[in-house]
């Protein structure tokens, strides 16, 4: 049962990576549940890199112009 608001499916992506011979990945995610889900497709996660979820850049006046 996916978390409410997150209905993404990683199975097809995992199959594509495996068919390309990619079996080890660095996971860019803050969610430990995704790690479990992706590992269940047979990919080895060699590193999990947290992503910055702050949106402070939206207040940057240079980016607004």
SSE map:
Elements: H1 11-19, E1 24-28, H2 32-39, E2 44-49, H3 61-64
Parallel strand pairs: 1-2
Main traits of this protein?
3 helices, alpha+beta, 2 strands
Any overview of this molecule?
The protein has 65 residues and is of the alpha+beta class. Strand 1 (24-28), helix 2 (32-39) and strand 2 form a beta-alpha-beta unit. It has a two-stranded parallel ribbon with strand order 1-2. It starts with 10 loop residues before the first helix and ends with a helix. The chain has one domain (11-64). The chain has helices at residues 11-19, 32-39, 61-64, and strands at 24-28, 44-49. The radius of gyration is 16 Å and the shape is elongated. The mean pLDDT is 82. It is built from three helices and two strands.
End-to-end C-alpha gap: 42 Å
Helix content: 25-40%
Please state the CA-atom Rg, rounded to the nearest Å: 16 Å
Largest sheet: 2 strands, parallel
Mean pLDDT: 82
The dominant shape is: elongated
Which runs of at least 5 residues are low in confidence (pLDDT < 50)?
none
SSE order, as H and E? Answer: HEHEH
Strand order of the largest sheet: 1-2
Number of helices: 3
**Strand elements, count:** 2
Based on secondary structure, the structural category is alpha+beta
Q: Indicate how many domains the architecture comprises.
A: 1
* Portion in strands: 15-25%
């Amino acid at each position: 049962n996916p978390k409410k608001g997150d209905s993404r499916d990683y199975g097809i992506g995992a199959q594509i990576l495996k068919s390309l011979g990619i079996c080890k990945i660095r996971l860019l995610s803050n969610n430990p549940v995704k790690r479990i889900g992706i590992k269940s497709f047979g990919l080895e996660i060699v590193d999990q890199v947290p992503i910055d979820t702050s949106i402070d850049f939206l207040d940057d006046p240079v980016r607004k112009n």
